[in-house]
Amino acid sequence: MPTFVYMTRCDGCGHCVDICPSDIMHIDPTYRRAINIEPNMCWECYACVKACPQNAIDCRGYSDFAPMGHSVRVLREEEKATISWKLIFRDGREKNFVSPIRTTPWGSIKSASDYAPPTKEAMNSQELAHEPDGLNIDKLPALTPDQLKLGVV
Ligand code: SF4
Ligand code: SF4
């Protein structure tokens, strides 16, 4: 479900532009409002939906799984730390979901530049940065050679 912006709600703050991992949220230079410039490239991560203080970003369903069409309205309530999704189908059915916006306080996550740069050994390792510590485990799960089989038995 790629996102789109209600321009009458948007105030052009740019939070969605800053947070979009696909770099497709832009501020229209004429209207000074946000616009998803390439919905086909939307990751559907909804980071922009959750970050928008004006509840100006909604999603549209693809016809394959929403053949009846529907509207999706999103309500972000920062004081409650929740985000609510209201789906209304064309036949009047309604579904409501409420989820935490996030599990850590706003602004509490360190950015990549707050961490020490990786060592040469880390750069040559198979592990990603901050693995396994960042996953709160001692070591990554892996198959041992005796667990591997060649071909189909
Ligand atoms: Fe960008 Fe994610 Fe919003 Fe799509 S849902 S526009 S990828 S932030
Ligand atoms: Fe507009 Fe919301 Fe994006 Fe701010 S975060 S620019 S209000 S759509």
Major sheet: size, sense and barrel closure? 3 strands, antiparallel
How many whole angstroms does the radius of gyration measure? 21 Å
- How does the overall form come out from the CA principal axes? extended
- The total domain count is 2
Distance between the termini: 42 Å
Give the bound compounds.
Answer: iron/sulfur cluster
Strands side by side in the biggest sheet:
5-6-7
Number of helices: 3
Average pLDDT rating: 86
- Helix-residue proportion: under 10%
Q: Helix/strand-derived class?
A: mainly beta
Beta content comes to 15-25%
The counted number of beta strands is 7
Q: What is the level 1 CATH name of the largest domain?
A: Alpha Beta
Order of helices and strands: EHEEHEEEEH
What features would you describe in this structure?
With 153 residues, this protein is mainly beta. It has three helices and seven strands. The radius of gyration is 21 Å and the shape is extended. The chain starts with a strand and ends in a 29-residue tail after the last helix.
In short:
This protein is mostly beta strands and 153 residues long.
Using brief descriptors, characterize the structure shown.
single chain, 153 residues, mainly beta, Alpha-Beta Plaits, 2 domains, 3-stranded antiparallel beta sheet, two-stranded antiparallel ribbon, 3 helices, 7 strands, extended, binds iron/sulfur cluster
